[in-house]
Every structure is written in C-alpha cells, then in structure tokens.
Write a structure and sequence with these properties.
Layout (H helix, E strand, L loop, with lengths): L21 H13 L5 H8 L3 H11 L2 E4 L2 E3 L5 H21 L1 H5 L2 E10 L5 H4 L1 E4 L6 E3 L6 E10 L1
Parallel strand pairs: 2-5
Antiparallel strand pairs: 1-4, 3-6
Helix pairs in contact: 1-3, 2-3
Length: 156
C-alpha cells in the first residue's frame, strides 16, 4: 500500500505553468500604462501567455475596462463660460422686468462656421481605463479641410 506523504500538487510533465503571477500582473500593467490603446492579443503575444490569461489579468486582477471617450465640439475657456453666464443673467433680468412680452419679441439667430471632418473610429479611440479613472473627453482641437457657413433664424 502506498502512503501519501504530501497533500500538495507536485509538477508533472505536460502540466500548464501558471502565468497569473504578481510578476505577470506588473508586466501587463506596465504595458497598459505605456500604451492605453493596446489590445489583449498584443499583450498576450508580448508576454507569451494565452489570450484568456491576459484577459483575466486585465479585467479581473487589475480591473481595467476598455472605454470610448465622449466627444465634445470644443473646450470652452473660462472667459467664454463667464460671457455665457453674463448673457443668460441679463436675459433673465429682462424677462423678470418685462414678462411674456419680452419672449414674444425674441427672434433667434446664429451664424457659425461648421467644420466637417472624418473622426477616428470609436474602436480606434478606445482606451484601457481603471474603474476609478476619470471619464475621458476628447476635444476637437483643429479644423479639417472642409467648412461651411451655417446661419439659422427662428421665431417662437
């Protein structure tokens, strides 16, 4: 009769080696911090591990998720924000003083240059972000080659 002397598993030929280690976790995190657009397949190939192991480290161990930035047309300056607040306060004061008669005399008009461009795809803009990272915003910083003048007038 054989006596079992150890209850731990000893290495056997053909047994898969473990790749989810603190060293592997640190290596994956370093790659992701260097390039937030890297794919799971690129990480797996770079570190010689399976796609499933890389995915497990990224999602379950490091708690990173791939997210897209929210596109906004421009980032307003503090001065522009202040001008918008001043204009709104002035209109509100006039409405309080004149009532509905003030609203009946409003004809709205706006004129602006509209730039058209080919934005990067949503897939190309995705980045790995930690669950506690702030939300990503992308600002349209430079106009494209094409633009048209848009003028609108309306009356209520």
């Amino acid at each position: 009769m054989n006596c079992i002397s150890s209850v731990t598993e000893s290495p056997r030929p053909g047994q898969a080696h473990r790749v989810v280690t603190p060293k592997a976790n640190a290596a994956v995190e370093a790659i992701m911090k260097e390039n937030c657009h890297v794919t799971v397949n690129e990480i797996a190939a770079n570190l010689d591990m399976s796609h499933g192991s890389a995915h497990h480290i990224i999602h379950d161990v490091l708690q990173f998720h791939k997210v897209s930035g929210r596109w906004v047309p421009y980032q307003p300056t503090a001065e522009l924000k202040e001008q918008h607040v001043d204009a709104c306060q002035e209109l509100f004061k006039r409405f309080e003083a004149e009532g509905d008669g003030f609203l009946e005399r409003i004809v709205m008009g706006d004129e602006t240059w509209v730039h058209y461009h080919q934005p990067e795809t949503k897939k190309a803009s995705k980045e790995w972000r930690h669950i506690s990272s702030p939300k990503l915003k992308k600002f349209h910083t430079q106009p494209s080659a094409g633009k048209v003048m848009l003028t609108l007038f309306w009356d209520e």
